[in-house]
């Protein structure tokens, strides 16, 4: 099952949440000769065996640069993704869908033998009514009301065609749950709560009550564990999709324990209405469509990753959430532009 060593791995989106963890994991991996991290802005991050290149996969006309960057790669890991501006889905489509297509085309043209793509639990269609865990065979049509889920699902169809037309490329699709680590907390606060949300308010003593509504059930995991799964997928002769998540599944009861708060049942429509009002008033950057999508995502079975990658999360979902909360309160970050740490502003 183990693959041969990789002389050179190219990682797009290497300065983000997953990218920084994966770059470090590959720098420690003796079976990887060198790593090229590709990002829109060169980071102040030096690691043994790691080089950096500036490129914007969403920019039309950068195809020759992409071709040069992947020309001598043994594998390409495509992580680059843009969450904002949520109010302009054309911009995110150009970056996430058309940018991904450019990367896939560069991989095919350069005859790179391995492509690992960052898909998501968000690519899945709404889960079964009983809430049973789904395997990688569950339909990936996403939720039509959110740009993020539409884009992730569309790229699944793009990769279906890519695999048909380029069977010589070993394509792996990673479908992780929500990913948290302390160093990415400030970025995620900015993405989902807004730049002006004060991180120190995320303290248990300030949240005595927690809204509980239908559909509040999802999975999370620590980003370092996701990076470990990516590393294993690169170095093993596997292909196809892999679900990634940690136990236990997060629900209102678990969140109540994490925040030391009492869950109080409220109608989901009331929560959505509040989020929608905040979004219209530009007080919150995350669209209400994303809330709708999260309420419908399935719980995933990770049996295939545990069996074929011999992968096991080192952190529980509770530990991942606690790391995120520590990072939000402290304004934690990393030495890259996307993960720059600040408590507020």
Could you explain how this protein is built, in words?
The protein is an alpha/beta fold and 345 residues long. 38% of the residues lie in helices and 17% in strands. The protein has eleven helices and 13 strands. The protein has a seven-stranded parallel beta sheet with strand order 3-2-1-4-5-6-11, with helices on both faces. The protein has a two-stranded parallel ribbon with strand order 7-10. The longest helix has 22 residues.
Task: Kindly name the structural category.
Answer: alpha/beta
The tally of strands reads 13
Tally of helical runs: 11
Radius of gyration: 19 Å
What's the pLDDT, averaged over the residues? 93
Key structural traits:
11 helices; seven-stranded parallel sheet; alpha/beta; 13 strands; 345 residues; two-stranded parallel sheet
Write the layout of secondary structure elements.
Elements: E1 6-12, H1 17-28, E2 32-39, E3 50-54, H2 63-70, E4 75-78, H3 89-110, E5 114-118, H4 147-165, E6 170-176, E7 178-180, H5 185-192, E8 209-212, E9 217-218, E10 220-222, H6 223-235, E11 240-244, E12 250-251, H7 252-259, E13 262-265, H8 268-280, H9 288-296, H10 303-308, H11 317-330
Parallel strand pairs: 1-2, 1-4, 2-3, 4-5, 5-6, 6-11, 7-10, 8-13
Antiparallel strand pairs: 9-12
Helix pairs in contact: 1-6, 2-3, 3-4
Summarize the structure.
This protein has 345 residues and is α/β, with parallel strands linked by helices. It has helices spanning 17-28, 63-70, 89-110, 147-165, 185-192, 223-235, 252-259, 268-280, 288-296, 303-308, 317-330; strands at 6-12, 32-39, 50-54, 75-78, 114-118, 170-176, 178-180, 209-212, 217-218, 220-222, 240-244, 250-251, 262-265.
């Amino acid at each position: 099952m183990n693959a041969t060593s990789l002389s050179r791995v190219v990682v797009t989106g290497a300065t983000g949440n997953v990218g920084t963890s994966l770059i470090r994991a590959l720098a420690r991996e003796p079976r990887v000769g060198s790593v090229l991290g590709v990002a829109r802005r060169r980071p102040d991050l030096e690691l043994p065996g790691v080089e950096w290149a500036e490129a914007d996969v969403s920019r039309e006309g950068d195809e020759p640069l992409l071709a040069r960057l992947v020309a001598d790669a043994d594998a390409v890991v495509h992580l680059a993704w843009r969450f904002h501006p949520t109010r302009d889905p054309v911009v995110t489509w150009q970056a996430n869908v058309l940018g991904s297509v450019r990367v896939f085309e560069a991989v095919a043209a350069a005859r790179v033998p391995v492509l690992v793509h960052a898909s998501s639990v968000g690519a899945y269609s709404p889960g079964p009514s009983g809430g049973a865990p789904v395997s990688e065979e569950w339909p990936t049509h996403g939720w039509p009301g959110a740009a993020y889920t539409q884009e992730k699902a569309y790229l699944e169809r793009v990769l279906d065609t890519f695999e048909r037309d380029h069977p010589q490329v070993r394509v792996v699709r990673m479908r992780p749950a929500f990913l948290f680590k302390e160093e990415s907390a400030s970025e995620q606060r900015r993405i989902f709560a807004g730049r002006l949300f004060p991180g120190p308010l995320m303290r248990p003593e300030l949240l005595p009550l927690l809204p509980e509504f239908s559909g509040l059930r999802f999975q999370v995991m620590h980003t370092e564990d996701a990076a470990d799964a990516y590393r294993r997928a690169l170095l093993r002769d596997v292909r196809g999709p892999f679900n990634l998540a940690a136990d236990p599944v997060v629900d209102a009861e678990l969140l109540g324990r994490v925040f030391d708060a009492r869950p109080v049942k409220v109608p989901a429509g009331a929560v959505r209405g509040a989020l929608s009002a905040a979004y219209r008033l530009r007080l919150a950057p995350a669209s209400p469509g994303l809330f709708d999508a999260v309420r419908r995502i399935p719980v995933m079975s990770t049996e295939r990753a545990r069996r074929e990658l011999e992968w096991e999360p080192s952190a529980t979902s509770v530990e991942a959430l606690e790391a995120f909360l520590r990072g939000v309160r402290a304004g934690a970050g990393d030495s890259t532009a996307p993960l720059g740490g600040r408590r507020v502003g």
